[in-house]
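Database export, one record per block. Field names are fixed; values are copied verbatim from the stored entry.
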Amino acid sequence: MAIPDLGSVALAVGALGTASFALVDATKIGRKGGISNSGFGFIEEAVHEFLPPSNIGPGESDRLLSMLHGHWINGSALADQKAIAKSLVKLKLTPDTAADYARATSVDPQALTEVARNMVTGEPLSTQQANALGRFDLALTARLDEAYQRADQKYRNSAKLLASIVAVVLALIGGWTVASAAGREFMGTAEMAIAVLCGLLAIPLAPISKDLASALQAGVKVAQSVRK
């Protein structure tokens, strides 16, 4: 039985993973951003805790979320997205929304309402009001950070899962094509199992396929030298 060129196998499997990621990335052309939309629900949920549509109106809520959604599907840096979201939410702090803000951040509603009133009128904040605003700011930052981290995790995991499915399908199609051209059976054979295995390995191997191929080739050369 001929020993396969492990370096070439690693490169081929890595190329399969790269192709699968490219096909998954192509779904971003969809109306909602395709796979990029995955995870945005966590951000939407966090924003609705502070700004329920029933309070600020569905139209205003949709416009705010549309701005955040645009940055999300475009893949802007998470730090920039969180800063933008925080600024947009704080801009909506008014005496009318202060109660919802206080409920979401466990801050005294009366103190936060007074803060919002002074911010609207331009009056200086008292020490108590400044402390309430500081607590609110910290709680808002923590809540948005949690939402964006969970959203990013779901997006990455969803992209990897979809890419793995695509890689397995491509590997099966390739294996079936080669077997059919050679007049061999494919379904239920060892070749089919190998194709599935290659598809499953394609995604984790894609980023390191070149380094792995070089390492395998070096290992083979060492083994051949020892044998001689």
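Remark 1: The first helix runs from residue 6 to 25.
Remark 2: The chain has one domain: 6-227.
End of record.
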